[in-house]
Amino acid sequence: MAVYTHLGAEDMAALIAAFDVGELRSAKGIAEGVSNSNWLIETSGRDGTGARFILTMYEYRIDTAELPYFLGLLDHLAARGCPVPRTIHDREGNLFRVIDGKCVALIEFLPGVSVSQPIPAQAYAVGQALAQVHLAAADFPATRANGMDLAESRRLLKACGPSGLAEIDAALPALVTDALDTLEREWPTGLPRSVIHADLFPDNVLMLGSKVSGLIDFYFACNDITAYDVATTHAAWCFSGDGRTFDPALSQALLAGYAAARPLSDPERAALPVLARGACLRFVASRAYDWLNTPRGALVMPKDPMAFARRMAFYADPANAAVFAAA
Ligand SMILES: Nc1ncnc2c1ncn2[C@@H]1O[C@H](COP(=O)(O)OP(=O)(O)OP(=O)(O)O)[C@@H](O)[C@H]1O
Ligand SMILES: N[C@@H](CCO)C(=O)O
């Protein structure tokens, strides 16, 4: 359940009145998501025929100094035809407002549902949409460093401590030590860089059938190796949830969809196994940290770090490098 802050009806109506979107008709808290408070807002619309929006209140996890990057990126991509929600600017032209010391933004509502068991046609469409974002962001003027890079994975895993990691799974301490050492040694340099989404899991993609209707949750977006985003998306889409089963049909479709819009170069393709291992380690690290630091009985269930430790082992196995050969 992710509505951390109560906003009374009068406060909500006053807030919505700061935007030129008609009068507030309803505001319903959205249960999905863990980082921010989100509401589905219905208004009369500017012409009285009704309109829907997502209102997001940024809670503890987001540095609000970075909001212009995240929200400006949505506007930039939407203007170039990417399926991302536009930010609704307030009557004074601001991208976000501050209420009770917290930043809030009103964002276009996009139709669609997040799939839990993707089919190849959907993976193909997601690959294509990801490439479209990489290309469309080429002239986005702002930059942001990746706050979840290898150094941050090392820091988070160190904070877990060997005993904390062993509490999750006896094999985990050795697995992450080996992965960190190898990845720091072998991390590629000189590959093309761009804006990347960095968290394009199925729950961050809205779909209508096999069409992508929305890419959402750009709050990890940053400038980094472009193929790293392909690797992250591959890890997020091509396995069963527990990471035990790899689906070659989803993999082929995702990579083919991506290549249809932005063909990978030979060096990018060759780097995918190590990039994918790095992507998995990033989610092992954040999940392990949350696993050990989420209070018992909290509203949000921590996600299983081992689901990504298994994927990491898959990518580390040279026998599986062929998965990317035809990318
Ligand atoms: N533009 C949009 N159009 C339609 N629905 C949206 C939109 N943005 C968000 N949602 C809905 O709100 C839910 C929560 O959004 P989101 O995933 O951005 O929340 P969050 O708390 O920031 O996420 P997370 O915890 O995954 O980082 C989504 O699962 C989706 O159902
Ligand atoms: N998508 C991430 C959460 C954001 O870091 C995960 O599934 O672990």
Automatic annotation (TrEMBL):
Which pathway does this polypeptide act in? Amino-acid biosynthesis; L-threonine biosynthesis; L-threonine from L-aspartate: step 4/5
- The question of whether Cell wall biogenesis/degradation is a record keyword is answered with no
Which keywords annotate this record?
Amino-acid biosynthesis, ATP-binding, Kinase, Nucleotide-binding, Threonine biosynthesis, Transferase
Provide the reaction this enzyme catalyses: L-homoserine + ATP = O-phospho-L-homoserine + ADP + H(+)
* EC number(s) stated in the UniProt entry for this protein: 2.7.1.39
Please tell me whether the keyword Repressor is annotated for this protein: no
Per the record, the similarity remark reads:
Belongs to the pseudomonas-type ThrB family.
Protein name as it appears in the record: Homoserine kinase
